[in-house]
Amino acid sequence: MTATLVKETNPPPPVTLASRARRLRRRGRIIALLFVLPALLLLGALVVYPVLFSVGRSFFDASGTEFVGGENYSEMFRDPATLKAVRNTAIWVVVAPALLTGLGLILAVLVEKVRWATAFKLLLFMPMAVSFLAAGIIFRLAYDEDPDKGVLNAAVVSVHDAIKGTSAYPTARGREGQGLSKSADGSYRTSASTGESVTLGLVGVPPKELPADASPAYAAAALPAAPGELRGVVYLDFTPGGGGEQGKVDRRESGLPEVTVEAVRDGRTAATTTTGSDGSFRFPELAQGSYEIRLPASNFAAPYEGISWLGPVLVTPAIIGAYLWIWTGFAMVLIGAGLATLPRDALEAARMDGANEWQIFRKITVPLLAPVLTVVFVTLVINVMKVFDLVYIIAPGPVQEDATVLATQMWLVSFGGGNNQGLGSALGVLLLLLVVPAMVFNLRRFRRSQR
Known about the structure:
The chain is elongated and about 145 Å long. It has 15 helices and nine strands. The strands form two sheets. It has a five-stranded antiparallel sheet, with no helix packed on it. A four-stranded mixed sheet has the order 1-4-5-8, with no helix packed on it. It folds into two domains: 79-155 and 308-419, MetI-like (MetI-like fold), CATH 1.10.3720.10; 173-300, no CATH class. The longest helix is centred in the first third of the chain and has 41 residues, at 17-57. Mean pLDDT is 86; it is low at 1-7. It is 51% helix and 10% strand. By secondary structure, it is an alpha+beta fold.
């Protein structure tokens, strides 16, 4: 009898809803990881690896072969240039974000009352479309000290000359040995008595730069002085085309108009006048006696050249001004978006209670916008700590050290001639440590606002 063995098999366990949910979650995590993996690889290659490499490199010497521990960090704070970079970065952090947030808030509130609000916002936001390189070149030209090139100095010089005036003959000087002597204060003087006529010859003025109304001085020089009168001419002692005699007024020599002339006696100015188109002047009511005829130094003062925007004193404020031009629109748009979400019933209730616009702005608008203002301020702080392009492009070479910040100092030390990547890496680590707290603060605020 053949025995047949029957093999019994266990049935598969039933699929529960919980196990099915776990499988779906696991599959979802895998799919999500596959989608995130390229971004994680890029993040690791472009952010995490450079940060870790810089931290490690900061503990080695300039060549990268010898371990020096914390020597680069101690050297960093002994270097005067680095200390100046830290100081300038602190100025940027304190000044630029505060000004930008304040300007953005004021403009956002004012724009609401403008009829063409959208066009105005677009106009202010347009500098954000300009690269920092292009903006740096624009402001490098705008800040040029030559009024013929720099638009800011052209405006400053125009206003100065309109208020205080300017000398017509900055290059003029007295001809030596012809009676005029120069004083220590830059004025020219000679002696004369009432009843005399004097000729005061100057040189150094190109004929083509003479005023349009200048006329020959020969006829005026030939006129005698009346009794009790002192008169004379101030003329250009130069004959175009050659000829003439030094110290004498030639028929073709031009008078110098609008020259200030003073009659001085006993150290006090007895009379003052200005020359006419032919260079003539006269003092008709002087007391009898001898006088000193003086041409004040103001006649020969060098023209006002404007402000040295990119000098050692003003270079950092000037660059901050360029930064404000670029980022004001950004702050205004963000604050304006927050302003649009404010409850209008609170504002209307305040107006009905008799509050004026300043009280509404100070006690309602600003407190309600505090979260938005904080985010804008912290975001700008992070951005300001990393500023590099504007400083490097706008600041001329001789004042580069006066304008340097941590980012530019890190580049200069590493690649801009210092060739010390160890110290440069230490500066990079310092910059990272300064930026991280602001970034963490911003992230926490974002998470709280989402909750």
